[in-house]
Amino acid sequence: MFRNLWVLLLPFALLTSACSLEANIDDLLKTALSSPPKLPAGVSLPTRPISGVVTDAASSDFLLSEAFVGSHGVADGETPLMVVVRLMNSDNTVVAGHVPELEVVSGTGVIKAPCTASDNFGIVLCPLKSSDSGVKKIKYTNLNGFVVEKDLVFDSPVKETTVIGSSGGEMQELTDPRGWKMSGTVGTSYGKVLAEDRGWKLYVGPVSSTLE
């Protein structure tokens, strides 16, 4: 009797499970589309329709995945440049909960940090720093054979200029924010470069001295 009852209830159980799974997928999609993704300043994504959200990276092709940056980085070894990667499949579904792997193809001084797992928009945030200026080529792998490449530009830090003035004669010590020091006498009659060190120049005039 009980076996016959289970046979009668089995189709209903399968239908209920399928409806529950479909509801969960619909809820995930609604959650993903309920608010725009949070992006770093200056980063905008090309408009693409999102047909769904998947969490199975193994069955994803990642063929529409891309990387974006909002600006150049600063090559001071401290300021992060945020790279945004959107993980998207060829059917316009986005991949949630996946972490791509970053590799530096060319360029020196790159300091890597862990990327975040992709959110319900397929968005991954990857902070990078560099101690050397120039162009860096990076790529993201662990995407089932697909590779996302991006060129990043890190600019040299802007030098600050310090101007000091005096009515004449005394020694003045000039210190830049990173602790580099240079001393000179102000109030001389020279209007030319007095000294140079690692790109810094001390100009001395009749009433002032300028460090650039």
Protein model, in words:
This protein has three domains: 1-34; 38-155, Immunoglobulin-like; 162-211, no CATH class. It has one helix and 16 strands. The chain has one helix at residues 2-33; strands spanning 52-54, 66-68, 73-74, 81-86, 93-95, 101-106, 110-112, 123-130, 134-141, 148-155, 162-165, 171-175, 181-185, 192-197, 200-204, 208-211. It is elongated. 21% of the residues are buried.
Dominant shape: elongated
Q: Report the sheet-strand fraction.
A: 35-45%
- Which stretches of 5+ consecutive residues score pLDDT under 50? 2-10, 17-21
Number of helices: 1
Strand order across the biggest sheet? 2-4-8-7
**Termini Cα gap:** 94 Å
CATH superfamily of the largest domain: Immunoglobulins
Query: SSE string, helix = H, strand = E?
Result: HEEEEEEEEEEEEEEEE
CATH-scheme architecture of the largest domain: Sandwich
What is the mean pLDDT? Answer: 76
Helix content: 10-25%
CATH topology of the largest domain: Immunoglobulin-like
Which CATH class of the largest domain? Answer: Mainly Beta
**Which secondary-structure class do the elements indicate?**
alpha+beta
What is the rounded Rg? 29 Å
**Tally of separate domains:** 3
User: Major beta sheet, specifics?
Assistant: 4 strands, antiparallel
Number of strands: 16
Organism: Bdellovibrio reynosensis
Signal peptide: 1-23
Keywords: Signal
Protein name: Lipoprotein
